[in-house]
Design goal:
Blueprint (H helix, E strand, L loop, with lengths): L1 E2 L6 H10 L6 E5 L1 H10 L7 E5 L5 H5 L6 H6 L6 E10 L2 E3 L2 E4 L1 H8 L2 H7 L1 H14 L5 E7 L4 E6 L1 E5 L21 E6 L4 H10 L13 E13 L5 E4 L2 E5 L2 E13 L1
Helix pairs in contact: 1-2, 5-7, 6-7
Length: about 260
């Protein structure tokens, strides 16, 4: 089966699996959201997902060592590809494969029309980021959960990035220590308070050796569970690039899927 859009993909994938459980193969042709929707539809079945990336940033393609050119990626389907395990996470009952952005990153995805991403690609997202950054109100967030050591911890932030992989919004290594196969989510607690700090962080993400993680208003923690609530207005969030959620948010381990990489 070939999936072409993120929206409403779970239903068709499940129907295909029910009709042909022994022979169905999944090739997700689209962006990261499409792959995530296909992964959610597997419901625990051990069926690997192949990817033909046609999205805006194609983070998963970079993570898996695949070409971001769709035709070259399609040619690889006839070759031997390695199986890459991914832990999935439940966010308010929704399956997360790759990332959860709360605050600025969430608001950016909410305010960037899909037609702009399709027409202008990464340039369109950057233009939208400038507009969103200038008007961003730095909402206070309360963050609680179980840390890597099994202890409860709490913090505050104005934005939160939850990563299940090393990359975010492109090929750059935004969270170099993240391991998609382990039982921990890598969480960046961002306490930027003004546009210069916000811009400094996102520009630093583009550079090697992760200089953004050394900024004074950035804390990197690894968590087993996570609860994010707003101390003011409800705050926008995106899950795997889809603008579907707002605070409060609860994140916990869900299941596992297998993606095909090089």
């Amino acid at each position: 089966m070939v999936a072409t859009e993120a929206a409403d993909m779970a239903g068709p994938v499940r129907r295909a699996l029910e009709a042909n459980p022994e022979t169905t193969q999944i090739v997700a042709c689209g962006g990261d959201g499409t792959v995530a929707a296909c992964a959610a539809a597997l419901d625990g079945r051990d069926i690997p997902i192949a990817i033909i990336p046609t999205g805006t940033t194609n983070v998963l393609a970079h993570e898996l060592g695949l070409p971001t050119h769709a035709e070259r990626a399609a040619r690889l389907l006839a070759t031997e590809l390695r199986r890459v395990p991914f832990r999935t996470w439940s966010v308010n009952g929704r399956s997360m494969l790759l990332q959860l952005g709360i605050g600025f990153d969430g608001q950016l995805i909410w305010r960037t029309p899909r037609r702009v991403k399709r027409a202008l690609g990464f340039v369109g997202v950057m233009l939208s980021a400038l507009r969103t950054g200038v008007s961003f109100d730095y909402p206070p967030l309360s963050v609680r959960g179980i840390g890597e050591d099994g202890r409860e911890r709490s913090a505050t932030a104005t934005s939160v990035l939850v990563a299940n992989a090393k990359r975010w919004a492109g090929p750059q290594l935004a969270v170099p220590t993240a391991d998609p196969a382990d039982d921990l989510m890598d969480v960046l607690l961002l306490n930027y308070r003004n546009f210069p700090q916000l811009a400094h962080f996102w520009i630093a993400v583009l550079f090697p050796n992760a200089p953004h993680l050394r900024l004074s208003y950035v804390e990197h923690v690894r968590m087993r569970t996570l609860d994010v609530t707003s101390l003011g207005r409800p705050v926008e969030a995106h899950i795997d690039g889809e603008p579907d959620l707002m605070t409060p948010l609860h994140v916990e381990a869900l299941g596992r899927v297998t993606l095909l990489g090089r």
